[in-house]
Amino acid sequence: MLPKRIALPVFASDPLSSVAYSPDEIFLTLALAGVTAYTFSWKIAIVVGFVMLAVVLSYRQNVQAYQSGGGDFEVASTNLGAKPALTVASALLVDYVLTVAVSISSAAQYLATTVDVARGHEVLIAGAAVLFLAAMNLRGVRESGTAFAIPTYIFIFSMLGMVCWGLGQHFIGGGLGRAESADLQVIAEPEFADGFAGVAAAFLLLRAFASGCATLTGVEAIANGVPAFRKPKGKNAATTLALLGAIAITLAMSIVALANIIHAQVVEDPEHQLRGPNGEVLVDYHQAPLVGQIAHVVFDNFPPGFFLITLSTGMILLLAANTAFNGFPVLASILAKDGYAPRAFAARGDRLAYSNGIVILAGFSILLIVAFDAEVTRLIQLYIVGVFVAFTIGQAGMVRHWTRLLKNERDPVVRAKMQTSRTINAFGLSVTGIVLVVVLITKFTHGAWISIVAMAIAFLLMTGIRRHYDNVAIELAADERDRVLPTRVHAMVLVSKLHKPTLRALAFAQASRPNALEAVTVSTSDSDTAELLKQWDERNLPMPLKVLHSPYRELIRPVVEYASAIRDANPRGVVAVYIPEYVVGRWWEQFLHNQTALRLKGRLLFTPGVMVISVPYQLASGKERAEEMREEYWLAPGLRRGSDGRR
Amino acid sequence: MLPKRIALPVFASDPLSSVAYSPDEIFLTLALAGVTAYTFSWKIAIVVGFVMLAVVLSYRQNVQAYQSGGGDFEVASTNLGAKPALTVASALLVDYVLTVAVSISSAAQYLATTVDVARGHEVLIAGAAVLFLAAMNLRGVRESGTAFAIPTYIFIFSMLGMVCWGLGQHFIGGGLGRAESADLQVIAEPEFADGFAGVAAAFLLLRAFASGCATLTGVEAIANGVPAFRKPKGKNAATTLALLGAIAITLAMSIVALANIIHAQVVEDPEHQLRGPNGEVLVDYHQAPLVGQIAHVVFDNFPPGFFLITLSTGMILLLAANTAFNGFPVLASILAKDGYAPRAFAARGDRLAYSNGIVILAGFSILLIVAFDAEVTRLIQLYIVGVFVAFTIGQAGMVRHWTRLLKNERDPVVRAKMQTSRTINAFGLSVTGIVLVVVLITKFTHGAWISIVAMAIAFLLMTGIRRHYDNVAIELAADERDRVLPTRVHAMVLVSKLHKPTLRALAFAQASRPNALEAVTVSTSDSDTAELLKQWDERNLPMPLKVLHSPYRELIRPVVEYASAIRDANPRGVVAVYIPEYVVGRWWEQFLHNQTALRLKGRLLFTPGVMVISVPYQLASGKERAEEMREEYWLAPGLRRGSDGRR
Hints:
With 647 residues, the first copy, chain A, is α/β, with parallel strands linked by helices. Chain A has helices at residues 4-17, 22-30, 41-65, 71-79, 82-114, 122-138, 145-171, 198-212, 233-261, 270-273, 290-298, 303-337, 352-371, 376-408, 412-476, 500-511, 526-539, 556-569, 587-592, 595-604, 620-631; strands at residues 185-186, 274-275, 489-494, 516-523, 545-549, 574-583, 610-618.
């Protein structure tokens, strides 16, 4: 259980890290209309802050009403039914992938701003960072809350420090310098050549606002983490949420203000949209993000300050991506338990279930990073739609929740409280709903359609999987006729060479005392078979060796056909096929052995009335591996959820 | 068996296709010293032609002495021992990958020359082409010799036609025009600013020669295909080889001549090395390969001629890549039979063994194409070293071969013939050896080191695999003590739900009449377990149900530990673990089921004294799939080797 001072940083990385890129999005969208449009940036920031307020207020209701950690998915499935819940789940799955892609790409950008040699290698760096996070999470490194607290507090305090120092210099001290980018010329899009007005301008403002709403991503994380708080969980989570919202709004607004003060400029595509003070083409210009530009001006005579800001920002972005690595497998396991995801994702007993989720998350985010060249701006276009789908459906669910409770509640005091809550959630619903519409309209063609397609695919996949499991369950249901005992067991032991594993399989088969027992070999080479028959006779083995001839040197088909023939001759009996296998310990040794045995087993499972018996023979390396496995610490699922605080 | 008129085109695609890129390599290497160096191009072409002559003469000996199709690998292993043979094998494996990468990249370049929209998408096109070839070969499409003959003959005759028409115009007719690139300025490297002389010039000439030797790639293909010829195989193969060599030399020399006549220019890096006639930077300049430039000039007033040349060149490059898709799996299967590659590559019984080879070849060649941006020039640097390693070792083996035969031969006529052969091969050895040294010296730092590292890795991997197999064979060898019968069989049936598969497993286990029989379930949820126990009682099942409690909700460890405990209590007995499995038919359904069963089986195989019995229950889709598999045509390995003519 986490005290608030640890819980805050644990959940803070995701929502706070967005200030690393969301103010930039406002500015560079406006820059399409030229520098004059920058004057709208602080107005847009205020509207974003207002939306943040609405969302935080609403989620304070959520965390108190639903404390199990199911978040919007649980709210939706309890109050709205399976389809809205699955929509939320699809949105969240897509958003986890984008959280990783956006955060890591942004972190790579900050690294490139700080360390020159990193420039131009952002895709590689971002890809490597994702692999690193995936590897850490696959190994089940149990990060403690404290390990998260330190970089997060460093980030919060260094950012607040920079903001205070910068605003202080501006308002009280000697004034702030100008950003390096202040004197560059921004080339406006042709449609804004005649100034910033009309429908195009309004649309661009809406688009800039929609981009700025990236600040809100990650707020919902607390709703999924309520169980990690100390009691009273709901109240503590709500307080943390308020605090977090306040910090996020403060930081975002301050950065927009400072960017305006120092006349910082950022554009989507510096190569084509920026020119030098005299209109010349810029050579090797690297565009630093706003936070970097501000840090550069504020800490002009103090480089360590600049490094502290950019590196702690990169660090918190890495932590934000890491929260997705914790959240995605948990969501996948919840979905798997409900039959909407493959059972292999359900966290039953060990960390392998989580591994599947981690690998898939890493794979998709690397795909996005490579496809979008690790460019934050292009990825952001895909990002926000999912967040607001989840927000909107979650709030709709909450409104339903209160309405449902109000039906049976008679106490007027409680009723009044519930009605207030319902009003807050209804307000949240309207705000997030409007933002969702704005996001859809302004960003659909810029990339949001990709997210929507991805969500639709996820949705269809999940319903398809559920339908499949339901059908299988019906097909498997047992009835009374299912207890007919086979009349006899015909055992055959497959023999390729007469080595230890074969002898063991023969012994085990004999010990099982079947009604009939024979050894079977497939002859692909006359000389090998002759040699085997000779050895067979020499050893005086007590069962016959049947030779199946295979003119086309197939190994599998003759065995399957022979087993089928025996079964057909005796339909009420069962054929037991013994396969000697030797077990090797190292993973690469697996590639060198038993491939045929594996495929044969796969084929035999399709043959009715056959059971397949693997008789293992452990080689030295296999025995060593068995020892290792016995000693290995088998992490229980509850033990690897460090970052959300549950240990 | 192939008549020569079909055998020629079948083997021609690989060696002839190299004229699509090797003359370019000579020119663009020389271009580093500026245009004046182009005057050396035809001298270099003559030396390359001379090397080709030496190689063709030598290989005419090889194909008559070794007719089984083992090629240089067989020659080396028979005459020089395992290590040289493995070196040849490593070189050939690497070269197959490069054949695909180079041919397909070149084909993409020709497509981009012909079809404008393809420009800038060469990597994508090349990657897709590799996947297409892999898919065709995975499906086991049996290309007939005739299907190969048509495009190859189109290529040969259209190229010869272009050459005759072009030279005719030049020497007899009204003269040829100038290439579009003729008036461009080539910027020489700084070291050649003072003219083309000294050590640097000599080194560049050697490098250009080494690059031109790319013309020789593919000649060895016939040595691997001797069995496909009509009798007398050796003689027919030798004749085909001579014919092929003659055509290749003629085409390569003619292209170099025509390129000189029309003053065509090609450089490694057009963006930086080429300027317009007045020194201006070129915008969107697409550099066509020499064959394309020549076709453009020769067929100036006849566009279909240009399209015929470039498209048939692209086609033959595709066919050349396809030969690697046939050769690589065959070589891998030969190596696997000798224990140098995983057994899964050995072609025993069906096409799956070949599939592994095809997938690996496709994977590595796509890797190369992506890593080198589908740029032929950069890939060529890696290519030639492997070819000449194989040539040189092969010829050394042939010299040994004749020396060995001469020892026991007394007939003076035969001896004289053998001595002539030995002289030819010794000559070939010297020439290829010298070229190998030249290639190593001039290309090592340009990329040949990558091939050498890859060859070394392949070599070490193969010896490591062989050592592993040898060790396992020793460990597995049976002795007299290996026939101890287990005293008793303790059977346990794993139960998760009481559905049809479970009932079938219980019935099969009962039919096997073990000494002890119990059902075992792992309890991860109290309510589920209570429900199961209730159903168990209701059904009146004749064996006890043992509940293993799993506080950490693990499924696998409790079962493994319980099985181990039973076995430890009775070390001379055997524990039979029955696992009910339901079998689904579609590949994607596999992901949704049995993952736990699969992992449990994997773990149990490491447990001594345990055998694992899979009791399959076929669901409807599984039964359908079984029917399909029964009907599927199981291709024998001899049936899918279409392209080298054996069917």
